[in-house]
Specification:
By secondary structure, the chain is mostly beta strands. It contains one helix and 15 strands, in the order βββββββββαββββββ. The longest helix is centred in the middle third of the chain and has 11 residues. The chain is globular, with a radius of gyration of 16 Å.
Length: about 210
Amino acid sequence: MPKGRYSLHDPHDHTPLAEEHFHCAPGPHGWRYVAQLTNPAPENDHLGSVDLTLDDLGRPLRLELHSGGWQVRGGALDGVTWVRTDPTGEEATEGTVAAHAFTGNSPAFLVATARLLRLTTTSPPTRVRLVSFTGQALAPRTLDQQWALRSSETHATDNGPLTVDEYLVGDVETGEQHTVHLAGDVILSARGIELEDLETPPTRFTD
């Protein structure tokens, strides 16, 4: 069960935004990722949380996000469906979009999209529609991305062979592109994300 810490920063000016303390593992339904977000050290104040469960096909069975008093709960149902609750807890708004999955600032969403698409190096660039929740208010936004697996290389490590996949991810609307380096269910690096600490090796998905 991988356990570790990511640092999240602004992809433009590299301002530190948060630290994400996570653990993840395959489970009876597919894969689950749980994380707590804090201010960068030394403050380490609690900022929010992420809880994402995927099924065997990489679809979001259950999503729960907390940030700035806001809460989002969602899952795959006729596309993706969610309920967003305000900080007072007095109002809740529902949403449903014909999309494939969710995305956001957490590295969990990059792992989830890669699991959903299951690309190979011979696969053509693949377009995917996602609902994004970002910022303290977790406001929803629908966007289209294009994913391509550029390379897949296996490296020898003390814990056995480690396969690292390099994806090229593009925003269809803006044309902006960035790379994602993924090993099993752990993001090694991506735009705005750095893996700072990993206590146990990544899970090696077999399919």
